[in-house]
Amino acid sequence: MNKKRYMWFILLCILILCGAGGIYFNNRKMLFFVENPTIEINSKFDYKKYIKEVKNGEKNDVACNSKKLDVSKLGQYEIVYVYQSQEYPLMIQVVDTIQPEIKMTSSLSLLINTTPDLKKGVEIIDNSQGQTELTIDSSQLDMSKEGEYTVQYSVEDCSGNKQVKNRTIRVVKEYGTDEQSNEKVVYLTFDDGPSANTKKILDILDKYNAKATFFVTGNGQKYNSYIKEAYEKGHTIGLHSYCHEYDIIYSSVDAYFNDLTKIGDMVKDIIGFTPHYIRFPGGSSNKVSKKYCTGIMSVLSKEVIKKGYQYYDWNCGTGDAEGNNIPTQTIIRNSTKKDDYNIVMLAHDTDAKDTTVQALPSIIEYYKNKGYVFKAIDDESFYAHQSLNN
Hints:
Blueprint: H1 2-28, E1 31-33, E2 38-40, E3 51-54, E4 63-65, E5 75-83, E6 86-95, E7 101-103, E8 107-111, E9 123-125, E10 132-137, E11 147-157, E12 162-172, E13 185-191, H2 198-207, E14 212-217, H3 225-232, E15 236-241, H4 246-249, H5 253-271, E16 277-278, H6 296-306, E17 310-311, E18 316-317, H7 328-335, E19 342-348, H8 354-369, E20 373-374
């Protein structure tokens, strides 16, 4: 009998201990975490994301000490959660699973028999911000023959993530065409910027989903951030002049190309490459250059093509070059006279051209109502070349 009582006593003690242990465990284990927690490198850490359950509470009741976590480096790190004065350590792995991205235009035109810059307009974006390796397979490209070719671009980051894209390369005799297309297109072009008005112009273009081309100078460099903004919004950046001083740039052929190189280098520092779209100050038909170097435009109009550029005059003018504060209605009237299929319109982007900005919405609305689209100049666009006057 005593032995049986003893056994019951032992069993009762075990039950009491188990119950007490269960109560202790339930009180102790107040947080439950997701399995195999990871965080992408260089991403924002949200400690609540890794809490699966908070017993008798909410996620907002939990604090977290993540001082040891370095999201800029791959590896395993310990973070400590605190809930009801109890600490709960958790190991988190910083990983890199996102592939790098190749951003570029789907096609690129290159001049025949030139050395190609296949990285032109190519941007690599990688979340790890570490070293990436770009490989370009141009084995099918023949720069000695006109035609279309496929070039393969592949980029791999230090974690082995990879992206592959194909790009169409067109080998051409010159950029653009002097034949108008059957599509009704307005190529809005703005000379002399950037300026205090550039942002206003960009906002108007955004409103109407219109694209334009900005032939820029080096005279408004405090506004150079707008050049990058315009490029990122899908507008085309062209080269106009660095100094825009006629007596300097048209003093000789060498002087012109020295100036063109300077503005090209400035733009390259902003958008990553040198554009091959240019506009001569005063246009190719200007009558000023002959005062400084007779016949210079006959030489320059050929030499820029040989050097891989294309120049763009215009077949429609806003008239804002005639002076400052030209009446808005005058600019609108000048700008809406043309009915060609391809209209290359000259406008100016300077601090003094407020009325050009004011006229812009009416100009865009007029042509949109007539079925035109507003495009930025590209390698296949119509170019207007005027008659030389030198």
